[in-house]
Design goal:
The complex is a heterodimer of chains A (about 260) and B (about 300).
Chain A lengths: L1 H11 L2 H24 L16 H4 L4 H8 L1 H21 L3 H7 L3 H34 L13 H32 L2 H22 L8 H10 L7 H25 L5
Helix pairs in contact in A: 1-7, 2-4, 2-7, 4-7, 4-8, 5-7, 5-8, 5-9, 7-8, 8-9, 8-10, 8-11, 10-11
Chain B lengths: L2 E12 L2 E12 L3 E5 L6 H8 L7 E6 L2 E2 L10 E4 L11 H12 L4 H9 L15 H13 L5 E5 L7 H16 L3 E5 L3 H7 L2 E6 L2 E7 H6 L4 E6 L5 H10 L4 E4 L2 E5 L4 H11 L4 E7 L3 H9 L2
Classes of the chains: A mainly alpha (about 260), B alpha/beta (about 300).
Chain lengths: ~260, ~300
Amino acid sequence: MFNVMKAELRKLRRPTLLISTILVVAALTALFTSIVFLRANSGQGNGQRGEIISPATLGSATGLIYGFKIVSFFLGITALCVFASQTAQEYSLGTLRNLLVRQPSRMKILAGKYLSMIIFAIALVVIDAIVAIAVSYSLAPHAKVTTSAWFTASALALLGKTFINVLLGTIAFGTFGMILGLLFRSPISSIATGVIWSLILENILAGVVSSTQKWLPGQNFDNVAQGGSLTVSYHWSMGIAAAYLIVGFSIVAVLFKRRDVAN
Amino acid sequence: MTTAISVRDLTKIYGERSALSHATFEVPLGTVCGFVGPNGSGKTTTIRMLLGLITPSGGTGTVLGENITHPERYLPRVGAMIEGPAFYPALSGAENLRVLASLGGFPQERVASLLEKVGLADRGGSKYKTYSLGMKQRLGIAAALLPNPKLLVLDEPTNGLDPSGIQEIRNLIKDLASDGTSVFVSSHLLSELEQISEYLVMLREGEVLFSGRTQDLLAAQTATLIAKPEFTVDLNKLVEIATRHGHTASVEGGAVHIVGDADWGATLNRLAFNAGITLAELTATQPTLEETFFEMTGE
């Protein structure tokens, strides 16, 4: 499995994928964090779904995490695309047969791939955190936000907790992408399905029938990243997300193990 | 263990269609074995089953002495290129090989020497998507050689190669075989296979038509005697002589083609002389593998 992971990391670190993904994540984080701070005094929404985050709130111990977690959904979508394409491309390029000849244990292939992509997801979240903190710190004076509470022990503990939540949310979206990749065996189909479902259909459903929010996978993945919300608790979302992913992953793992590799 | 590959009643059924039906053959260790058959005859299906990519519907098999139900026991000693090369377009040739070396736990140092061996040393750093078909094929062969294999399985290794590339691959296969590597190679270039294959497995519509020594197959085919008389007016007389002695004969391109062993050539020469015919040419030809293939497969 370690060999599979090493091989997968070689693919993931190719400049076209790594640099472009880092740039997208960094740019989105910088953009959304800037909006949070630059519009803090506007009296209008500067958070998710029109939420107003005042300079006073930003100056509290929780102030450092707003910019960080506001892009968690886009991090999740990025992870979904990367996990799905890295999995499905093995079928579309015909490279799966090479992998299986060199490593016949299909479960080791799956586990090694998954672990390598989790490392990739960790890298994305670290970049998100670094950029969000840097932008927050540099824009705080402009937004008249005091930063003295940001580096207290409780603020740093909250930052650590948020990091883990954003990482779990990102991995959940990525796992969803990997499930779709194994199911559809085509990068375009799996990414299109995942993005359209998570980004469009789920948001429409949750907007029209708010009670569906607590049952939809993407909404729960993002709720984990946000650390829970007023309407859906963190623990509920963790349970639902885990249930979806465990069932989904188990089904595709059995398919992956048993299915003939005929392309 | 005396066989590199041994299968008995190997069968693969997709729904109603039988892709391979009760295939039984053996490939001795240390030999080059050609694997031939028309498109759709079950060659790739067989190779996929030998490599653990698809599960047989029936039958048994061993590769390097290990049961094909446990490919993990023999695949570390097997190199394979199936259905042409398949690599990551955004990675360089060298990086693609490094991915596979990492995966199989092979030394990364082998990458440079293998690129050199297949003539890609200069282009190893170029992205795979910029490679020509011949270069992709060479990279596929380099990947198959990564484990320093005891058995090399190649599916159409000369596809897309120019004549000098084909010759290089032929020599490479010969070199590997002389070092004791068993090579199981499918190809449509039957003249190439005839030159390098000591053994042959021939398929048609999922069934094994022949498996054994190439020489035995060719020797079992009836030879043709080509007799060219000095004067064309004697052509029909020659046909008549051959027919009278129980041989099928016909006139083709100013010569008489007579189905018969080379041994009958002396008798024909004598009979022609007695009939007042002078033979300007008399040659005996054995059918090529290609002719034999077409005759056996009915293609």
